[in-house]
Amino acid sequence: MPLIELRDVTRRYLIGEQEILALNGINLDIAQGEYASIIGPSGSGKSTLMHLLGCLDTPSSGTMHIDGIDVSRASGNRLAELRNAKIGFVFQNFNLLPKLTVLQNVELPMIYSGISAQERNKRALHAIERVELMNRIKNTPLQLSGGQMQRVAIARALVNRPKIIFADEPTGNLDSKTGATILQMFRELSEEGSTIVLVTHDNKIAAETPRRIEIRDGRIVEDALTEAAFA
Amino acid sequence: MNLWLGFLIGLKEIWAHKFRSFLTMSGVILGVASLLSMFSLTAGMAKGMREYMQQVGGIERVGINTQEVPAEEEGYWEISPGRTVADAEIIARSAPLVSHVTPVSQINNAAIQRTNQTFRGEVAGCWPDFIPINKHTVAAGRGLSDLDVERGLRVCVIGRLAVQKLWPERPKDDPIGETIRINDRPFKVVGVFEYYEREEDKRRRELGAKAPPVNRLSSRPGGGGGGIGGGRGGGRFSPFERKNLTVIIPISTMFWEFKSANMVGKEDQGPQLKLDALTFQVADTNRFEETLEQVHSLIETTHRGIHDFTFDTRQEWFDAIEQNVRNTRMSGGLIAGISLLVGGIGITNIMLASITERIREIGVRRAVGAKGRDIFVQIVVESAVIGVIGGLLGLVASTGIMQILIAISPEANAPVVELDSVLISFGFAVVIGVFSGIYPAWKASRLDPIEALRYG
């Protein structure tokens, strides 16, 4: 059974009187351990798709299962629980809380899953160790470089041991060299067994992932393995 | 997310915007301070009044006053002898529900002197029961006795302030056996009343912190009205000044020495045997009405059916004062409450501004798994923390306001800080804090996580 399973998923928005069909009949399976990229120009529906996959939103029609759980009509609270337990996010603009330290930022998801303070600390330190920022735990995000901030965000995404990690343009705000190290980190995580979905508009980045899903006008126009799959 | 964590986040938020938070809190601070000051002020007033009422005889003291006769008795009201000693005698003999009764005949502006010390004041001729009825305590010597009254002896019992006025060189002595002159007649002092003062004055004096009573002599002879609060601006006024100036002599002596003639122009109107006051004490306040009826029927016979008398009970007075205190408390509380409410609106306003600033933060929290409920709790706790801190600072501020109030209000009504007032004021601040946060929190909790993440 795939980790993520979408069947005939549509997503409509009402903007004023006008109805916009952002996603139109999406069928998609993503298996455990896959490293995939979703690529498309802006307005193609890739963000909407990512919001659906990331349990930030529910489809207007069709069904969607994540880890065997039907989330097609889940309530806001249920979605929050799923995000907390099964999903890690990495954003283009990092989205760290500027008033919290690195350690506190990484602990944040665990605050909402009722983990004891001691255990939170232990797991956060472990995740920070994984992204090699142990010397920065007392700093606030504004004292870090872009690449370091993104590594904190990755640690935060990892800390609740999610089933799947979504990264929305994770290198968009980084210079190419730093971006490359972040991509390298994703590759390593993938090799360690994490399921990762990377959203991008950059073909070069998409080419790094073994699976490339191209979306245009709300439909999947291509879903194929890349050369990276055979590397 | 647990509350403790929310509390810490709230503290952090407040600390991050110190000045803004303080401005927001100032509404609550002032509200709590005025609420507590208000409560303390009325509590002080009530306490002063109750103490005074107790000291002037309590609820069980009833006076029999004269009144205009009803219209139907107007033609023949002269057949009533008015209030006389006979009234007191019949009450003493035939009213078992009355524990004490005394007739009072007095001179209001008697010259009371000893060698070269003189003051003018009230002298009351009465029975020994005057002492328990008016809650007097004899501190030295003895009170009046039945024998004094029977024989019309020239003896007197005087209050401590009278002693101080007559023996300024040794105000603390008990001049038992010494002689004073009342309107030029010599009287032997047989007893001295204790010094009456408010509880807190007594405590303060015993601690040795405040000036001794000697220095508290007012320059006004006769002790003024003896009312409450009349002393504002008059220095260290004590509501017990009049009581401390009491001079009593046997009523028989009073009649014999001072009331046997009444010169109007050149004509002697004869002895003045009508009383200036007639007071009794109800033995059992639970049978108050019954006692009044009993006395009423007795006085009705001595007054030959003329209803020229009325009862001056303090029940209504007491009720009126309690009612007044409650009303003042209510209206003052309401006004202070409104100012606290305004403080609450300030909190709501700032919380709304604060969540607008933090939409993205809310989005991030939602994205990593916070439920709407978690965001709601966080904002409410933050706002409650403002209420709690504001409340605490308000309590501190009120001690300052209280000092000002103590300085400007009559001493008898000095504010009293009661624990419940503190708890109510503080509790109200916390409640206001929580309630002010509810609307912003509800708004924040309903933010769509996607929109919130995109914001800014």
User: Quick one: how many beta strands of chain B?
Assistant: 12
Q: Could you report the average pLDDT of chain B, rounded to the nearest whole number?
A: 85
Structural class of chain A: alpha/beta
The helix content of chain B is: 40-55%
Name given to the CATH architecture of chain A: 3-Layer(aba) Sandwich
Task: Determine the oligomeric state from the structure.
Answer: heterodimer
Percent of residues in beta strands of chain A: 25-35%
Strand order of the largest sheet of chain B: 2-3-8-5-7-6
Counting structural domains of chain B, the number is 2
CATH homologous superfamily identity of chain A? P-loop containing nucleotide triphosphate hydrolases
- Share of residues in helices of chain A: 25-40%
Computed structural class of chain B: alpha+beta
How far do the termini of chain B sit from each other? Answer: 26 Å
Query: Strand order within the widest sheet of chain A?
Result: 6-7-8-3-9-10
Succession of helices and strands of chain B: HHEHEEHEHEHEEHHEHEEEHEHHHHH
Provide the fold topology.
The complex is a heterodimer of chains A (231) and B (456).
Chain A: E1 4-15, E2 18-30, E3 35-39, H1 46-53, E4 61-66, E5 69-70, H2 76-86, E6 87-90, H3 102-111, H4 117-130, H5 146-158, E7 164-168, H6 176-191, E8 195-200, H7 203-206, E9 211-216, E10 219-225
Parallel strand pairs in A: 3-8, 3-9, 6-7, 7-8
Antiparallel strand pairs in A: 1-2, 1-4, 4-5, 9-10
Chain B: H1 3-16, H2 18-55, E1 61-66, H3 85-94, E2 98-114, E3 117-126, H4 130-133, E4 138-141, H5 146-151, E5 155-158, H6 160-166, E6 179-182, E7 185-193, H7 199-206, H8 241-244, E8 247-250, H9 251-258, E9 263-264, E10 267-268, E11 277-282, H10 288-302, E12 309-312, H11 315-357, H12 359-367, H13 372-408, H14 419-445, H15 449-454
Helix pairs in contact in B: 1-13, 2-11, 2-13, 2-14, 3-10, 11-13, 11-14, 13-14
